[in-house]
Amino acid sequence: MSESPSLIQLGWQPFFQQQLSLDEMELISDDNADDRLIIGRVIEQHRSGMIVLTTSGQWAMSQTAHQASVTDRLCVGDWVLCDQQHKFVRLLERKSVFQRKAPGSKVESQLISANVDSLFIVCSLNNDFNLSRIERYLSLANESQVTPIVILTKADQCDDVADKTLLVQSLNPLMMVHSVNALDETEILPLLDYCKQGQTIALLGSSGVGKSTLVNGLLGSSTQLTSAIREDDSKGRHTTTSRALKWMSRGDQSGGLILDTPGMRELQLGACEQGVSETFSEITQLASQCRFSDCQHQAEPGCAIQAALASGELTERRLISYQKLMREQALNGATLAQKRAKDKALGKMINSVQTASRSRKKGDY
Ligand SMILES: Nc1nc2c(ncn2[C@@H]2O[C@H](COP(=O)(O)OP(=O)(O)OP(=O)(O)O)[C@@H](O)[C@H]2O)c(=O)[nH]1
Ligand SMILES: [Zn+2]
To answer: CATH no. for residue 307?
Structure first.
């Protein structure tokens, strides 16, 4: 590792500080205490465990067997307290979290990253340009309460940059939208404003839109928090994996962190009804003005949505995009409800088995 960062450089914020008890604060600041506590941030996740970075270096975190239910649910970006033996003590509450449906399962979620402040939604201005995909990513950002920033790449390969940028801006007039040639470092410099010291950003976008190019450009000649590591993959080959959390520090300017895990890149829409509603807030607003509270927005009289379509205030594309995402939510919701019902049934069965076994022991069976 080239350099140890300060807590602030690692992304420590008042939100996390406020969670520490007085006792914990004492144990953190007392270098001589036997039960000294150390604050660390999870920077990598491996099959074998978590790598935690602290102000005094990085190490593999250990845990006791009974902590597995918590440590199995940790992810890159998490803040943890550890003891001097590098053993997990507790997880600090997350400011934000990205999760997805676990592969092969409709109901379990898999945590991808935590404590991201801003999300760069990357979309290229050539053939990948797709408003509905941006809306999908916006729903994810809103659900996770992470600030979205839309970055339109390959501006150098597009004839109507201004028109397309306006279209994206029309999704939300308050949203930050940038169009860049990601290969040109001077064009991406303004993006560094979102990555100031203590801020953690993540990137989301289809393959080939320029995420790696942006990350490399933003890192510039940054000091890396950590160097690349070599580990054996499942087939025993050596692979070089780069750190999931990268630090942008250029010259004497100390920047924020880029969280770049493969999982983040493949993120799909999980359960995020709230995020979808927020992304399409004008549609939910309109729907509340329909004459009938159960309006299907088809041909009912007094339908505010149909009226907005007719006046051109709302586009059909946007309505269809909203309905599609909402339908996906309904499906997610259904599977979650089914899972809850199943868990409840299982709980009942376990209870009845335990009651029966207790009565057998008491001899009244
Ligand atoms: N002309 C031009 N080419 C770009 C731009 N951004 C990226 N590219 C090129 O597009 C190709 C894909 O870029 P990457 O940065 O690897 O894309 P990515 O999003 O990281 O792709 P994945 O790793 O598959 O997710 C590379 O050849 C880049 O040089 C841009 O703004 N303009
Ligand atoms: Zn209606």
So the answer is: 1.10.40.50
Q: Which of 209, 219, 246 to mutate to test ligand 1, by most ligand atoms within 8 A of the CB atom?
A: 209
CA–centroid distance, 305 to ligand 2, in Å, is 5
Report yes or no on 4 lying in a domain.
Answer: no
Question: What's the mean pLDDT in 234-249?
Answer: 59
Query: Is the CB of 212 within 6 Å of ligand 1?
Result: yes
> Which is more confident, 354 or 288?
288
pLDDT above 90: residue 184: yes
- The answer to whether 303 is a known ligand-binding residue is yes
Q: Decide: 197 and 222 in contact? Cβ < 8 Å.
A: no
Across the range 156-185, mean pLDDT stands at: 95
pTM score > 0.95 for this model? no
Per the annotation, does 213 bind a ligand? Answer: yes
From the CA of 157, how far away is ligand 1's center (Å)? Answer: 12
Q: Which of 123, 181, 213 to mutate to test the pocket of ligand 1 (most atoms within 8 A of CB)?
A: 213
Measured CA angle at 27 (ends 26, 31), to 5 deg: 105
ipTM for the predicted complex comes to 0.96
156 lines ligand 1 (CB under 6 A): yes
List pLDDT tens digits, range 71-92.
888 999 999 999 999 999 999 9
Locate all alpha helices (DSSP H) within the chain, ordered by sequence: 14-17, 22-29, 68-71, 131-143, 161-169, 185-188, 211-219, 262-265, 273-279, 281-287, 304-311, 316-362
Same domain, 102 and 220: yes
Residues 238 and 331 placed together within one structural domain of the fold:
no
Residues 142, 236 within the same domain: yes
Decide which of 265, 283, 308 is a domain's last residue: 265
Q: What average pLDDT score do residues 145-173 get?
A: 95
- Tell me, yes or no, whether 185 lies in a domain: yes
Helix/strand/coil for 294: coil
- In this structure, the residue with its CA closest to atom 8 of ligand 1 is 210
Q: What is the DSSP string of 341-359?
A: HHHHHHHHHHHHHHHHHHH
Same domain, 168 and 250: yes
Worst-scoring range by mean pLDDT, 117-126, 171-180, 206-215, 236-245? 236-245
Is 365 among the domain residues?
no
- Total tally of structural domains belonging to the chain: 3
Query: 69 and 211 in one domain?
Result: no
Residue 130's domain comprises 97-265
